[in-house]
Write a structure and sequence with these properties.
Number of helices: 18
Low-confidence stretches: 1-28
Mean pLDDT: 93
Largest sheet: 7 strands, mixed
Strand content: 15-25%
Distance between the termini: 26 Å
Number of strands: 21
Radius of gyration: 22 Å
Structural class: alpha+beta
Helix content: 25-40%
Shape: globular
């Protein structure tokens, strides 16, 4: 099987010719059968099988990680492989991409998969009134053309060397054409597992599909059961008492209890996950860059790493590009905790004191409330008075994030710089949770996207990270490792994916019973 790494893809750019092939390696002596029970956070009573609405692990793992497929998939080692696409090629300018689709694939209702399904599924994200975080990806496609029953050609408005990676986005699920409403209602995909029950915000169960196109190379459980457990203590107790076999997002304060249990092992991987405090920059006082800079200097980043992450991460500089990204600016001058500079920028804004609300919930990230209170204490010496408003966990993402002027949030990061920026920092995209629009940054974003020269790309992405550090509306104090816990009853590969939690949210595909 041919795999093209992200670094290889970006180095070679879009040279004409096949760039990747599909398939997964068969693990030797992998045990088949059993039921994987996972206790996961990020569930809501409003959850559905509509990929456009997915934003947290519970539905990502249930949908793309089990029931549905996308065109491409990021493997555990960071390489890109085909899923419903077998291979792809591009014109030298990276504007026209031709994807060959896998033949012999059927949806769970028996409908054959083909080009019409791809086109109709992607069009969902740009339909009138559609609210999808993947809208920027699909809206960049100028034309989608069916060039065969199992071939689709995409013509982009501008060249994009990362386009095959974008097709692995967890929102871009493939549905059966002409039956999409039914598929969303019942969870009908082409994935390894077919839905047997689904109670939003509570539980999802699914069984392994017979004669699946991935064969014996993936999907080793007979059944999976994903239980919604948003409280971190409840998740830990469920694992320790044997109610579940795996949990995500362990509470670092109770990690010692898990480590002391010989029937449990801890998985920790370094990726691009980052915890944030976004400000709506169109709303006063956050529309003043001096206020934003005062707030940036008023937070003690290392203290948060030490006390919230307990060392499971590193301090960040208000940029979402992380240590697993190719163009991570590791040598950029760090933002320090400096009350004198915070006072200076308050004075530049015409103030000696600032009173603001910070709306938070641990639904945003484990320890978000404590982190906000530490921020409150550290900023006070500069005359910045932060009123920490604790919000309910249920409905946090629909009632607080993107709505309150200053709140807590997190992002898993993305495999490429452009993917991350296009998701949350491009002008007008749905998940631009700061409403930030800086001309030079937007100019560089478009230029870097179409640039195939890696040296030039590096220069542009470094400048963009500096702009975000100095001008952006997101306070990003720390990168957090993925730390999860698994029962010894479950076996996982030596390499665990770091793009999302729980092996890129694909534990149902990649893990097995021990």
């Amino acid at each position: 099987m041919t795999r093209i790494s992200r670094r290889g893809l970006l180095t070679t750019g879009a040279a004409a010719g096949v760039l990747a092939a599909s398939g997964l390696p068969l693990r030797a002596q992998t045990k088949r059968g059993g039921r994987l029970r996972a206790g996961l956070n990020g569930a809501n009573t409003s959850d559905s099988w509509d990929g456009r609405t997915h934003s947290d692990l519970y539905m990502i793992a249930s949908a793309q990680g089990a029931v549905f497929d996308s065109l491409t998939e990021v493997a555990a080692d960071g390489s890109l492989v085909g899923e419903l696409a077998t291979d792809w090629e591009a014109t030298p300018d990276a504007k026209t991409w031709t994807f060959n689709l896998r033949q012999g694939v059927t949806f769970h209702n028996g409908k054959p998969f083909g080009a019409d399904d791809v086109i109709e599924s992607l069009q969902l994200h740009v339909a009138e009134g559609a609210k999808s975080a993947a809208k920027p990806i699909v809206s960049a496609i100028q034309e989608m053309k069916k060039t065969g029953e199992h071939q689709v050609q995409f013509t982009l408005a501008a060249g994009n060397a990362d386009f095959p990676y974008l097709m692995s986005d967890y929102h871009l699920l493939m549905y059966p054409a002409g039956q999409i409403e039914e598929a969303i209602a019942n969870g009908i995909g082409t994935g390894l597992y077919a839905v047997t029950s689904f109670e939003p915000g509570v539980r999802m169960t699914a069984k392994r599909v017979d004669s699946h196109y991935k064969g014996d190379d993936a999907g080793f459980f007979d059944e999976i059961e994903y239980i919604a457990i948003n409280d971190s203590t409840a998740r830990m107790n469920a694992l320790l008492t044997g109610q579940v076999d795996a949990i995500n997002r362990i509470d670092f304060k109770t990690e010692a209890l898990l480590k002391a249990n010989p029937m449990v092992r801890i998985q920790e991987v370094t990726g691009n996950q980052h915890y944030t405090f976004p400000m709506l920059t169109k709303v006063a006082p956050f529309d003043d860059v001096n206020i934003r800079r005062a707030l940036k200097y008023g937070i003690n980043r290392q203290e948060l790493v030490d006390k919230i992450l307990l060392g499971h991460g590193l301090a960040a500089n208000d940029t979402p590009i992380g240590p697993a990204n190719q163009y991570f600016y590791a040598d950029m001058e760090p933002l320090t905790y400096d009350l004198d500079k915070a006072k200076f920028y308050l004075k530049e804004a015409g103030l000696t004191e600032l009173n603001i609300d910070l709306n938070v919930s641990n639904a945003a990230f484990n320890g978000a409330v404590d982190a906000a209170q530490l921020y409150q204490a550290s900023a006070k010496g500069a005359g910045i008075n932060i009123n920490v408003v604790q919000e309910p966990a249920d409905g946090y993402w629909s009632n607080v994030w993107l709505k309150k002027p200053f709140c807590a949030s997190y992002f898993s990061g993305r495999a490429t710089e452009d993917w991350m920026f296009a998701t949350a920092y491009e002008t007008g995209v749905p998940w631009n949770d700061t409403q930030w629009d800086q001309p030079r940054f937007q100019e560089l974003l478009l230029e870097a996207r179409a640039t195939l020269d890696t040296t030039k790309r590096k220069e542009m992405y470094h400048e963009m990270q500096q702009i975000l550090r100095d001008d952006g509306g997101a306070i990003i104090p720390m990168f957090a490792n993925y730390v999860q816990a698994v029962s010894n009853k479950v076996s996982s590969p030596e390499t665990v994916g770091n793009l999302w939690q729980m092996d890129n949210a694909r534990m149902a595909e990649r893990w097995s019973m021990a």
